[in-house]
């Protein structure tokens, strides 16, 4: 298997673009800890919020690396038979992905990470909230959050940029929770990606 720059390979996972891929199912390890909001309504905007708690940790115990499908998120399907059915039911055929944190191509002195949702069908509501962190001696330092939503769309991109000091070196992590909802049902995913080595802020 050939490695391309920025491509994370996992042996049991299909590769797509610059991310790895795994399935999201109800009750599986990648299901969101919280349920989807009862009335998830998109806003067609992306809001970036600074995080002021420098020592806040980023949990990833229930996250999946790189990319995942937004599987059914229905409590009624929590049983064994329901679990098998949910594994095949992907509302609006949506996939969620997080790329490697990287120097922004448009804004100098900024580290950025993208949170992308792409669906095979038009989805009534897509929503995403993600965060960017960097590795410090005491753990992951939470830097910024990006969140947003769209209605009646096949795709949504949310970003979480953070200014960086030129010539500094850090490892960064991006992670996000993705939601889809509509008449077909509701789905969710928790995905993360991180640099294996420190990257330099190019300024």
Quick synopsis:
The chain is built from one helix and 16 strands. The chain has about 200 residues and is mainly β. Strand 8 and strand 9 form a beta hairpin.
Can you walk through the features of this model?
The protein is built from 1 helix and 16 strands. By secondary structure, the chain is mostly beta strands. The longest helix is centred in the middle third of the chain and has 9 residues. The protein is elongated and about 50 Å long. The N terminus is likely disordered.
Question: What is this structure's SSE topology?
Answer:
Elements: E1 14-16, E2 19-21, E3 45-50, E4 64-65, E5 67-69, E6 71-72, H1 80-88, E7 94-98, E8 102-103, E9 110-112, E10 114-136, E11 139-159, E12 162-163, E13 169-170, E14 172-182, E15 185-194, E16 199-200
Radius of gyration, in Å, reads: 17 Å
Helix count from the secondary structure assignment: 1
- Mean pLDDT across every amino acid position: 72
Structural class: mainly beta
The largest sheet is: 9 strands, mixed
Total strand segments = 16
Helix content range: under 10%
Low-confidence stretches: 1-56, 77-88
In one word, what is the shape? elongated
How much of the sequence is in beta strands? Answer: over 45%
Termini gap: 34 Å
Order of helices and strands: EEEEEEHEEEEEEEEEE
